[in-house]
Amino acid sequence: MGEQKPVDLDALMAEVRERIRSKREKGIYGPDVEALLRVPLPGGRRIFSDDLQDPLASLAEALDEEVEYDPRSRKPLVGPVITYARKVVISLVRWWMGAILERQERINRLLAAAYDYEGQMAPRFGSRLERLEREWKEWREHEVAANLHSVYFQARFGGDEPVIRRQSEAFVDLYKGRKRVLDLGSGRGIFLQLLKHKGIGGYGVDLDPRMVAQSRAKGLEAHEVDALAHLRQVETGSVDGLYARHLAEHILPGELVEILRACRRALAPGAPIVFVTPNPKTLTVGAHTFWNDPQHLRPIPPDLFKFYLEVEGFTDVALRTFEPTERRLSEDVPAGPIRENVKLLNETLFGDRDYEARRRRRALLPAALPGRGAGRPPHRPLLDGQ
């Protein structure tokens, strides 16, 4: 004897329903049977899964359905007492239930009207949303000249690669021994190359596909992704160092705070973090060269950047200016007020063009960057209140 197969009840019931539906459509049952099919089954209302087959009709029936409750108790001896108690409770809460039912009826009607209105307005909402998205994208492109070819801009205003390399070399040793250093806004991959040459593991993220392609062509790990989105996706404590050169001035203050908050979560304990950005305390930077890049949104004063880091939990933050302006007023003038005024003008108008904000470590800050011209003042840490 062969083994008996189990009965598939779901398939069987589906076949029965399909046969009943087919016969009802053909009128085989007649009016008497149709009337009997509409009679509620003994023991309560229809199964909810059946109601879901025709939700609109079932909803209308549910709204019109009268709620009935039989307070009578059929228990011997105590039954009359229980019945009387139930009637007393019903009489006490009837006014409250009436108010609730009236409120629910009003909500039901409003929902039905809202669904009907939304169904009529949905096509218009869709077209309006597409138009708003298109206009927002165009506005964003126009605001920061996002449609400008980045290669052309880098060739004119992006700085010579040897200069950027010289500036970046001063920070490489901070990440010695690290395995997973993240370069936010990695650009052409100059800093990633320096890390690689020192045997330091690192990767970069950048929104510009052309820059990412250049980095990958050099054999570097680079990803085309938003910095904040990436920081939120990485595992907690999985990044053991972070470097961001000229990124902060490209984003709004609120987004910068969110990035710092995400950095705090993503960085391993004690991991070094360095942000480099233009120094607006030098007026020739804040009032002129900063705006050569149409994608710069606003300069960040050094003390404000330090506050951002500290309020997001980074302790012992250090600030340091570097990269002095090439043209300066000659200080070879008679000693006294004239020389002091010339020094003040040099500091205000022709001071250092960039500054770094980092979490201070035990090692002393380097006194100077490579390639500084002779006769110029050394890099100065920005003191509190300066």
Query: What is the total tally of β strands?
Result: 7
Helix content: 40-55%
Name the overall outline. elongated
Q: How do the SSEs run, as a string of H and E?
A: HHHHHHHEHEHEHEHEHHEHE
**How would you characterize the largest beta sheet?**
7 strands, mixed
Describe it for me?
The chain has a domain at 163-359: Vaccinia Virus protein VP39 (Rossmann fold). α10 (227-233) packs parallel to α11. It has helices at 9-26, 30-37, 48-51, 55-64, 79-144, 150-157, 161-172, 190-197, 209-217, 227-233, 253-266, 283-286, 302-311, 337-349; strands at 181-184, 202-206, 222-224, 242-245, 273-278, 317-324, 352-359. The protein has 386 residues and is α/β, with parallel strands linked by helices. A 7-stranded mixed beta sheet has the order 3-2-1-4-5-7-6, sandwiched between helices. The longest helix is centred in the N-terminal third of the chain and has 66 residues, at 79-144.
Which descriptors apply to this entry?
386 residues; seven-stranded mixed sheet; 14 helices; disordered C terminus
What is the compact description of this entry?
This protein has 386 residues and is an alpha/beta fold. Helices cover 49% and strands 10% of the residues.
